[in-house]
Design goal:
Helix 2 links the parallel strand 2 and strand 3. The strands form 2 sheets. The chain has an 8-stranded mixed beta sheet, sandwiched between helices. A two-stranded antiparallel sheet has the order 8-9. The chain is of the alpha/beta class. Helix 9 packs antiparallel against helix 10 and helix 12 runs antiparallel to helix 13. It has 2 domains: about 170 residues, Alpha-Beta Complex (Spore Coat Polysaccharide Biosynthesis Protein SpsA, Chain A), CATH 3.90.550; about 100 residues, no CATH class. The protein is globular.
């Protein structure tokens, strides 16, 4: 259907599922309310004031008995919402930028899926408050539905467009991770029992294990996911970086270095990849003192490569700073300890790094 054939503006509905989110639901709803036509909150069993706060802020609240299946809950919420477009967000997220874009969407036919940039917010030590950036399909035509018990995905074959919408998320803060520990793993393992060779599920189990520093499990699952997965998958770069880190923590430096060498051509565009290599080489020096000079040279080369590439916010999973000040931080410290203080000082100045911060 063309724009000219449409007889009315398209309705945009915020759709979220929530449970015991009284501390955060207002932040989400306040950020989105100016830009959407209505808001639907599916409460999955709260025993706090989540539902009442949502109603006070103008959201329609429906109740749903949680069934250990995120897709089932998402799809019930979408059925209730009934919009031409659905903006699908979680209670620990909020709209940070780009709300005005939704005004344009109202005039467009719902025949494509829109990706938003998701910025994961960690703690104050994280650069600019972000730990990673991803692109996820969250602005969806009204008829689309989800599949997958956890890490659910919308099922469709529509064109996908990146939008100016920026969503912030603080669900990976340490306090939030404590409350989630075990829940996601349990659902992932249930799903994996049904589809034991699913590379994406293996990757997600490995990712969950890496978040909680369970390096043996992360190594095993990420290795299996890499073996079974599509080399073109958008999540494979993150898999490789996490796998290198898991092997580093397990002391498998040689295997990690071999993997990095194998993947260098494919992922040489990514500062995150080179940053992980530099970290690996530096860590290796502790157990291979006879190779210190060579390993430090490889670490230096990796961090210089990060700076040569620069930031790549367009790459899923990219961490702000790995193409700039974080790489410069590590490189300057390496230059300092290898007797090149003047070059280290110049590098710090050029990236606005404080001397005291580097030496603390």
């Amino acid at each position: 259907m063309s724009n000219q054939g449409m007889t009315r503006a398209q309705r945009i509905v915020l759709v979220t599922i929530a449970r015991n989110e009284a501390d955060r639901i207002a932040r989400l709803l306040a950020s989105v309310r100016p830009w959407v036509d209505s808001m639907l909150v599916l409460d999955t069993g709260s025993d706090d004031d989540t539902a009442e706060i949502a109603r006070q802020l103008g959201a329609r609240v429906e109740q749903y008995e949680w069934s250990d299946d995120f897709s089932a809950a998402r799809n019930v919420a979408l059925d209730h919402a009934g919009g031409d477009w659905h903006l699908v967000l979680d209670a620990d997220e909020w709209l940070a930028q780009g709300g005005e874009f939704l005004r344009q969407v109202r005039q467009q036919p719902a025949d494509w899926a829109g990706q938003v940039r998701l910025d994961d917010v960690l703690d104050s030590w994280a650069p600019q408050g972000c730990v990673a950036r991803n692109w996820l399909s969250r602005l969806l035509p009204g008829h689309l539905r989800y599949a997958g018990r956890i890490h659910e995905q919308p099922v469709h074959a529509l064109p996908v467009r990146r939008t100016p919408l920026v969503i912030a998320h603080d669900g990976y803060r340490p306090d939030a991770l404590v409350s989630k520990r075990g829940r996601n793993r349990r659902l992932l393992l249930r799903e994996l029992q049904e589809r034991p060779d699913d590379a994406y599920l293996l990757y997600q189990v490995g990712k969950d294990a890496s978040v909680y520093e369970e390096h043996d499990l992360a190594h095993a699952c990420l290795a299996a996911a890499c073996e079974r997965g599509d080399r073109q998958a958008s999540w494979r770069l993150d898999l490789i970086i996490r796998w290198i880190a898991a092997m580093k923590h397990l002391g498998l430096h040689g295997q990690a270095a071999a993997l990095a060498h194998q993947e260098r051509t494919r992922y040489g565009f990514s500062p995150d990849f080179h940053f992980a290599v530099g970290d690996l080489m530096l860590d290796w020096t502790a157990t291979a003192p006879d190779r210190t000079d060579d390993l430090l040279a490889e670490a230096e080369q990796a961090w210089r490569r990060c700076l040569a590439i620069g930031e790549r916010p367009d790459v899923p999973g990219s961490v702000p700073g790995r193409g700039s000040h974080l790489a410069a931080f590590n490189l300057a410290l390496l230059l300092e300890v290898t007797g090149r203080s003047a070059e280290a000082c110049g590098l710090r100045r050029s990236h606005g790094l404080a001397e005291a911060a580097l030496l603390s």
